[in-house]
Amino acid sequence: MIDARLFGEVFVTLTVIMDPLGTVPIFLGLTAGRPVAARRRLAWQAVVVAGLVIATFAVFGQQILDYLGITLPALQGAGGLLLVLVALELLRGGASDPEEVPDVNVALVPLGTPLLAGPGAIAATIVFVRSAQGASEYVAIGLGLVAVHVVLWLALRYSVGVLRLVREAGIHLITRILGLLLSAIAVQLLADSVRAFVRAG
């Protein structure tokens, strides 16, 4: 028997943190100018990368952080700095023109991490695993993680259909707006990191 309550907790918590629907416009902005087939490939690659990162931290997270002497606030700060760079690129619009799309796999960075598997999702996963007791709770956490990533894949996979409504010109506009929003997310991560460091003394 699995712990249905814990499964629901994990699923709801990580769904809210990883925000599948909120990731859709960012995904479209970062993959603008790419063929539909390439966008679909990047969608599942991003989810796989996020899944591997989350699974790694679920199993070895606390040990990795302890061994390297890294705190969760430091992880938040690093994620915030990385998102600042991505936000600046979106605001400049350098990746929104087909001729200027760099030959890089955005499914790895920034989609897979830190946008999907970011500090919040990693921290929540570590907390769930640390508080789990017994095989049924570990299974519930595992199934919850799988369910969240299935939802993420569905959101990104079918986001390609949004292009039929907004067209490439709409994506250009959305990209600029998202650059601003993403920069705000980055600043919030950095602020949370600084606040945590201050509280820790």
In summary, what is this structure?
With 201 residues, the chain is an all-alpha fold. It contains 8 helices and no strands.
Question: Which key features would you list for this structure?
Answer:
single chain; 201 residues; mainly alpha; 8 helices
Q: How many structurally independent domains?
A: 1
Radius of gyration: 17 Å
Query: In terms of per-residue confidence, which ranges show pLDDT below 50 for 5 or more consecutive residues?
Result: 95-101
Basic shape: globular
Beta-strand portion reads under 5%
Q: How would you summarize the topology of this molecule?
A:
Layout: H1 4-18, H2 20-30, H3 36-68, H4 72-92, H5 107-116, H6 119-131, H7 135-157, H8 163-199
Write up this protein:
By secondary structure, the chain is mainly α. It has one domain (4-199). Helices cover 81% and strands 0% of the residues. It has eight helices and no strands. α3 (36-68) runs antiparallel to α7 (135-157) and α4 (72-92) runs antiparallel to α8. Residues 95-101 have low confidence and may be disordered.
